[in-house]
From TrEMBL:
Family named by the database record: Belongs to the aldehyde dehydrogenase family.
Pfam families: Aldedh
Name assigned to this protein: Aldehyde dehydrogenase
Classification via InterPro entries: Ald_DH/histidinol_DH, Ald_DH_C, Ald_DH_CS_GLU, Ald_DH_N, Aldehyde_DH_dom
Length: 474
């Protein structure tokens, strides 16, 4: 059953992308000393802009600018004054919300519905939330002394939101930052640099160095940074943990995940199906806490899977700027290849693949929403993070088996539970080794609520009062 609908594309004319960008150091855009990299729109493969690839000299300059700003301006500034800048940033994000949403969507590939209704509002909410803490740090219980200069490296899946998660608490606590966005999604970070100028944030408090992995490495290994905050893959997180070991740097790592979404036989099926869809197809499954392992109670597995497939067949995959689109483009050719490769491994392991019937655009990077059934615990598709719109389905008989399977993973970032029984939800949640457990919902975020992992999902918490701890020296 397909619904006819008229395309409703958001206008691109609200964004003004420059052909070429420098680095944002000491409050202004400056030329980098290294090469240039191109960022593309993954839905069309169109080159959007060229950005600088920061080299060692550039990273030195950015860290020095952050140090000067920390020593002379931001560190000594009273919290109530810092708060005013954070509030101002939050309000400018709201004022420029439409532009930021369009920019995020064309650089990243995510549907405008998500960038407009989820990413950008949460970015503003994060700055508002931490602005409120800036003059109340003494009540948070982690001291009031900032650490100094924070080196922050973020991935491409929620470019502006991850920036907000990093920058807002750091600034509220009185630190200055040098942030490196991901190579494929630098544009909203550069727009944020303009917002810092617009907010008249003192020069050097926020510095943005674009580049690829090597720039990130130079930044986190820089001897003059006091704090490293990294969100990205477990593999790179481990390298970073090794490289800062023995230094005086404080580190927080937000890494990968392989969340279980557990559906009990008493769950409201239609609601659970919406939650499963949101859990794995939100942001094309490029979500560290995605519900990528569906654990369904055996007695309802058949009915649930039928309902899920019917729902998946209605997902609209395509132009991310179209307000009707549910699932956008895969962020890069490299990521598309990873998703394809792991899915082929799923086929080879004997799992059964079902793909939503949808037409994919000719140009750009696309992967249709996919479900694997007949998956066993030992399968690589059940163990490794696919980071794409691919769901693995396993079954269980008892709550104890559900808990055992949910925890049988090297990761521990998030989980979902679907049941009518509050007592069952609490009992199961208590036994799950996951930083966040959602009950009868999934992928809900709020700046007041801490987020972070166990095991190979990393350490440290972002968001909430707990998120201040990473940026204060007791
Ligand atoms: P990634 O390869 O680890 O990249 C993350 C960031 O680190 C990028 O800016 C990357 O630069 C940079 N980088 C690469 N090598 C580096 C090195 N040796 N030293 C310092 N920085 C380096 O991760 P990804 O594949 O882009 O992102 C997806 C991963 O992020 C997934 O595993 C996902 O689960 C995780 N994630 C976790 C959370 C969380 O909160 N736990 C949230 C979102 C995503 P380039 O991109 O320019 O190469
Ligand atoms: Mg891009």
């Amino acid at each position: 059953m397909a619904f006819e609908y008229a395309p409703a594309p958001e206008s691109r004319s609200v964004v003004d992308i420059r052909a070429s960008y420098g680095l944002f150091i000491g409050g202004e855009f400056v030329d980098g000393s290294g090469g240039r990299i191109k960022t593309v729109n993954p839905a069309t493969e169109e080159v959007l802009a060229e950005v600088a690839e920061a080299g060692s000299d550039d990273v030195d300059r950015a860290v020095a600018a952050a140090r000067t700003a920390f020593d002379q301006v931001w560190g000594p500034m009273p919290g109530r004054e810092r708060a005013k800048y954070l509030y101002r940033i939050a309000r400018i994000v709201q004022e420029r919300a439409r532009e930021l949403a369009v920019l995020e969507t064309i650089d990243n590939g995510k549907p405008i519905r998500e960038s407009r209704d989820v990413d950008v509002p949460l970015v503003a909410a994060h700055f508002f939330y931490y602005a409120g803490w800036a003059d109340k740090l003494r009540y948070a219980g982690f001291g009031e002394r900032p650490l100094g200069v924070a080196a922050q490296v973020i991935p491409w899946n929620f470019p502006l939101l991850m920036l907000a998660w990093k920058i807002a608490p750091a600034l509220a606590c009185g630190n200055t930052v040098v942030l490196k966005p991901a190579e494929t999604t630098p544009l909203t970070a550069l727009a944020f640099a303009e917002i810092c100028q617009q907010a008249e944030l003192p020069p050097g408090v926020v510095n943005i160095v674009t580049g690829a992995g090597e720039t990130g490495r130079l930044l986190v290994e820089h001897p003059a940074v006091d704090k490293v905050a990294f969100t990205g893959s477990t593999e790179v997180g481990k390298q970073i943990a090794r490289s800062v070991a023995g230094s005086r740097k404080r580190v927080t790592l937000e890494l990968g995940g392989k969340a279980a979404n557990i559906v009990f036989d008493d769950a409201p099926i239609d609601q659970a199906v919406e939650g499963i869809v949101n859990g794995i197809f939100f942001n094309q499954g490029h979500v560290c806490c995605a519900g990528s392992r569906l654990l369904v109670q055996e007695s309802i597995a058949g009915d649930l899977l039928d309902a899920l497939k019917r729902r998946m067949a209605l997902l609209r995959v395509g132009d991310p700027l179209d307000k009707n689109t549910d699932v956008g483009a895969i962020n890069s050719a490299v990521q598309l290849e990873r998703i394809r490769r792991l899915s082929e491994i799923g086929d080879a392991e004997g799992a059964e693949r079902w793909t939503a019937p949808c037409e994919l655009p000719d140009r750009g990077f696309w992967f249709a929403p996919t479900v694997f059934t007949g998956v066993s615990q030992a399968h690589r598709i059940a163990r490794e993070e696919i980071f794409g719109p691919v769901l693995s389905v396993l079954t269980f008989r008892t709550p104890a088996e559900a808990v055992e399977k949910a925890n049988n993973t090297p990761y521990g970032l998030s989980a979902g539970i679907w049941s009518e029984k509050g007592s069952r939800i609490l009992a199961v949640a208590d036994k799950l080794r996951a930083g966040v457990v959602w009950a009868n919902t999934f992928n809900k975020f709020d700046p007041a609520s801490p987020f972070g992992g166990y095991k190979e999902s990393g350490y440290g918490r972002e968001g909430g009062r707990h998120g201040l701890e990473a940026y204060l020296d007791r």
